[in-house]
Design goal:
single chain, alpha/beta, TIM Barrel, globular, binds 3-methyl-2-oxobutanoic acid
Length: 263
């Protein structure tokens, strides 16, 4: 199967094919989601909550991201690998943003994602100028949740909807190749999708987008705190608990290892 590049993503979008993105943070799950046929793997800063046990994504560092991006890249996926820029890695200056985006690419990312609208277009332009594709992220932008007043649905007022649309257009204008729209009213996400000529990849923003993204640990029932818009497709937490309980039981009863497991 041929490698999915930015050109392939945009061709699929132009053909009207819905794009599929999912998060992964390590080598085995990157292999598995790639075998499942996703278009893009996002090494999201959600790693902080769902894998590292941090209270929010604000604790995630560049060191964390580089560690996880390189693990995913070693799986050599066919899917395009997007590395999330963590909180504090792009706010201070264009130079710092470019330096950190370069580090993510050196670790194996094929594009970077950063949160924000009109306030980050200078960063987006600078990173693209350095030769790195950028994915935007609008709506509920968890890194800025203190400013937004918590994890709340965006686009509920006319003013918010207008600002989101302006943000999307500004990101497109700055050269972003796609935009994640998170937890935004479905009619607002639809309007944005119809108003820009780049793919919108939605999460908790309804069906009228160019594609959808979910956090892998939500899909698998492995996250402690699941947002209301995440669908659990299989409860792995139950399967893991039961498998380990069985192992513990067999050890305690002297049933493991049985003859076939030793020489
Ligand atoms: O970090 C992440 O997983 C994300 C997705 C929720 C889009 O940004």
């Amino acid at each position: 199967m041929e490698k999915i590049t930015i050109r392939k993503v945009l061709k699929k979008y132009q053909r009207g094919e819905r794009l599929v993105m999912v998060t992964a943070y390590d080598y085995p799950t990157a292999k598995l989601v790639d075998q499942a046929g996703v278009d893009m793997i996002l090494v999201g800063d959600s790693v902080g909550m769902v894998v590292l046990g941090y209270p929010s994504s604000n604790q995630v560092t560049m060191k964390d991201m580089l560690h996880h991006v390189s693990a995913v890249a070693r799986a050599n996926p066919r899917a395009m690998v997007i590395g999330d820029m963590p909180f504090g890695s792009y706010e201070a200056s264009n130079e710092e943003a470019v330096r950190n985006a370069v580090e993510l690419v050196r670790a194996g990312a094929e594009a970077v994602k950063l949160e924000g609208g009109q306030e980050v277009v200078d960063r987006v332009r600078a990173i693209i100028k350095a030769g790195i594709p950028v994915m935007g992220h609008l709506g509920l932008t968890p890194q800025k949740r203190h400013l937004l007043g918590g994890y709340r649905l965006r686009g509920k007022t006319e003013q918010e909807a207008k600002e989101l649309l302006e943000d999307a257009k500004a990101l497109e204008d700055a050269g972003a190749f796609a935009i994640v729209i998170e937890y935004v009213k479905a009619d607002v996400a639809k309007k944005i999708t119809e108003s820009v000529n780049i793919p919108t990849i939605c999460i908790g923003a309804g069906p009228h987008c160019s594609g959808q993204v979910l956090v892998l640990h939500d899909i698998l029932g492995l996250s402690e705190m699941r947002p209301p818009f995440a669908k659990v497709y299989f409860d792995c937490s139950k399967a893991i608990r039961e498998a380990v309980q069985k192992f513990a039981e067999e050890v305690r009863e002297g049933k493991f290892p049985s003859e076939e497991y030793y020489r």
